[in-house]
Amino acid sequence: MQPWNTTFQTPPFDIIEDANYAPAIREAMSISETTINEIAMQSDEPTFDNTIVRLETATEPLDRCTELLFNINECNTNPVLQQTVMDLVPELSQFENRVWMNSRLFARVESIYERRGEMQLDGEQMQLLEKYYQRFVRNGVGLDEEKKRLFNACTEELATLSEQFNHNALNDTNEYMLHIVDSVQLGGLPADIVEAAREEATRRGLEGWVFTLHAPSYRPFLTYADDRSLREQMWRAYNSRGNRGNGNDNKQIVSRIVELRLQKAQLLGYDDYASYSLCRTMAETEENVTRFLDDLLQSSLPFARNDLAEVKEFAHRQGADYELQNWDFSYWSEKLKRERYDFDSEALRPYFRLENVRQGIFDLYRRLYGLTFAERNDVAVYHDDVKVFEVRDGERTMGLLYLDMYPRESKRSGAWMTEFRGQSCIHGRQVRPLIQVVCNFTKPTGGKPSLLSFDEVETFMHEMGHAMHGMLSDVHYPSLSGTNVRHDFVEMPSQVMENWCYEPEFLNTFAHHYQTGDAIPPEYIEKIRRSENYLAGWLCVRQLNFGRTDMAYHTLHHPLAEDVETFEHANMVELLPVVSGACTSTSFTHIFSGGYAAGYYGYKWAEVLDADIFSRFKERGIFDSDTAAAFRREILSRGGSEHPSVLFRNFMGRDPDSGALLRRCGFCAE
């Protein structure tokens, strides 16, 4: 299959039809399998080039097609694409099983691996060899035939269930709406949010206002709506996704996924799935992860309890004559924030017009790394909302950046970075990446542009951190490029970038009122900085709960014996009353369809690294070109070509300081 004959060899979205995916992927699968069999059957002595490098390029046609299909299915799906994915997933899983259980092919890889000490391989080549060797071993090549059959069956069923989980979560999100016809029930809601709800109702052919479970609608409603009963209704709807006993129910899927992962791990000789998964991370063992989570919980829990006590006391002082529930916390904590810091989150929106924020981020990367961003209107896109930018470093094109910013029913919730093509340079053939950033930000409404909340600004910065990790990659092999790093390291470059959001020097470069052009007032920036650690304990425990629940599922030594909802609540530290029917697991796409199984702790793990790394920027200046150049050279450009501990030491000159995060959160003295 030839590369696409387009500018930068980008996907020709203007001519690709839904019906094209299945035949293209099946053809690419056949081509790739032929190439792989040729590698396995060759008579020449195994070498790094004739085996490992050829393996690295063997599935290029298939990778190009599958990355396209699966990415579009996440952000612009429809019933045809969903069915196509469900049809192809078993075939792709079977194909992978044939590759990784090919004993003849593994014999060649093993021969090179056993001779690696005498082959004069450089560090990147050693990483690639290790990755391939472990991939064969971890995918069952050494099992006997009966265990191989069982392993294959687990893998195929898991692939199908993960896709079904994702579809169910999206469908359950889309099927709910809160339809309001009485304007009295809109009390407390900001005008922009009300206008967006009116436009949503009009789009659906309804009178009044419609609120949905998509973040730009759901979050403001929980934060500002005075009508407590409607807040409860929205909260229950959001937190019961996949747990409603309807056609989108994910409870049995969760139980089965957990069981199948355990079976796979035990077939390979591990006690549980976490042990199998974590040996390829920075943490390495479940004991290290458990200790990390427990230590951080011990540090943050007293602050979380204090946060809750303060919100409760404030609510009661304001006349709330009821016990605070989950649907009350955002509402009252926002009011307390306003009283304590004179901080009105909605008052910040006019200073965060999406286009200005985007330009501010682009300018930041220009100052740090010399990059420029030029919009390209000649590149085909998959939806009218998508904008494409060519990223350049001087005269050199670094890659293309696709930005897809607004929610729609065809897009799953959340925000993420992915790629249509990764960076590589094999045998001098330089391939630059095609990076995609997908968000669900507040849409333009009523003639107003998209005005972001401060949280959305942080989210944008986070995902752009991932994007630049991919964009600035400068390695040889695609499976080591960009964000192809150990799982508990991947969030560090993105979380580092969030720190700039609290820096006046950065905010002053772009935060201007969308109507008057006035810069954000200094007192607003001071309020942002003063409130940086507001609810730090509460938010830390919330994140730790997700990581603890993830680990609880994946440290089981036997299939789940109780229902998912009960199991989840037993493994969370819940400071507000437990609500029957509420269940995070049944819509927890990160761990049940998104690749973070036994790895969600990585967000907090990476926070330790990012807090430490940003301290270097703070010490030398947040725009310091030498510090930025070192960060690019030692971390961003290196991808997974070296162990992350080595990359960290190369930049910082030492191992991580675990106290940096505690100090930043205010959990210990400076």
Order of neighbouring strands in the sheet with most strands: 3-4-5-9-6
Oligomer: single chain
Strand percentage lies at 5-15%
How much helix, percentage-wise, in residues? 40-55%
Task: Catalogue the unreliable spans.
Answer: none
Question: What's this entry about, in short?
Answer:
This protein is 55% helix and 7% strand. The protein has helices at 21-41, 48-58, 60-75, 79-100, 103-114, 123-138, 145-174, 191-203, 215-224, 228-238, 251-267, 273-278, 286-317, 326-341, 345-348, 354-369, 454-471, 492-498, 504-507, 522-530, 536-554, 564-570, 589-592, 602-620, 625-634, 644-652, 659-665, and strands spanning 178-180, 209-211, 371-375, 387-393, 396-404, 416-421, 424-426, 429-431, 434-438.
Blueprint of the fold:
Elements: H1 21-41, H2 48-58, H3 60-75, H4 79-100, H5 103-114, H6 123-138, H7 145-174, E1 178-180, H8 191-203, E2 209-211, H9 215-224, H10 228-238, H11 251-267, H12 273-278, H13 286-317, H14 326-341, H15 345-348, H16 354-369, E3 371-375, E4 387-393, E5 396-404, E6 416-421, E7 424-426, E8 429-431, E9 434-438, H17 454-471, H18 492-498, H19 504-507, H20 522-530, H21 536-554, H22 564-570, H23 589-592, H24 602-620, H25 625-634, H26 644-652, H27 659-665
Parallel strand pairs: 5-9
Antiparallel strand pairs: 1-2, 3-4, 4-5, 6-9, 7-8
Helix pairs in contact: 1-2, 1-3, 1-4, 1-5, 4-7, 5-6, 7-11, 13-14, 13-21, 16-17, 17-18, 18-24, 24-27
